[in-house]
Amino acid sequence: MKIRKLVPEEYAKASALLHLAFPGSAYETELVETLHQNGKMVHEWVCIHINKIIAYIAFTNAYHGSAVCGLHLAPLAVKPEFQRQGIGSELLRFSLRQDVIKESTIFVVGKPRFYQKFGFEPCAMPLCPLDKNNAHFLSLRNSTSSQFTVGYEPEFRGR
User: pTM, whole model, 2 decimals?
Assistant: First the structure.
């Protein structure tokens, strides 16, 4: 198993993985494809096993008004036959150690029980427009005390 940055020549393979990892939802696949098409800054890594992409993770900018205030982790995906083997956890640990990520505040909407294992904590501020009452909104290295609603790239609006 090898983890490395996703390259443009592999965008279609990453989309195929997202389609498999999120059956019944086209949102994640369309989100990532639209971010790529629009040339948005996305930090992406993949896990390779026998020359095939089996896991994917992405981070996009988080905003306080027009200023970048951190990164959003979304999506994290593992090919179904490789799920529940620790691959997603290893990919997340790897990405959190990367220079471009390790100094930033990270926000995620997800299962608190999973993300808390990596140091994420429930996030009271900022407010998340995608998660009513911030019930599944977590953050890492978040020192925000001012009240605002965190912004996402416009491509997230389809949700």
Answer: 0.94
pLDDT, tens digit, 9 for 90 and up, residues 99-128 = 999 999 999 999 999 999 999 999 989 999
Find the distance separating the first CA and the last CA of the chain, reported in whole Å: 32
- 5-36 per-position pLDDT tens digit: 999 999 999 999 999 999 989 999 999 999 99
Q: Which domain holds residue 111?
A: 2-158
The angle at the Cα of 152, spanning 159 to 98, to the nearest 5 degrees, equals 115
Q: What is the CATH number of the domain that holds 109?
A: 3.40.630.30
Domains of the chain: total: 1
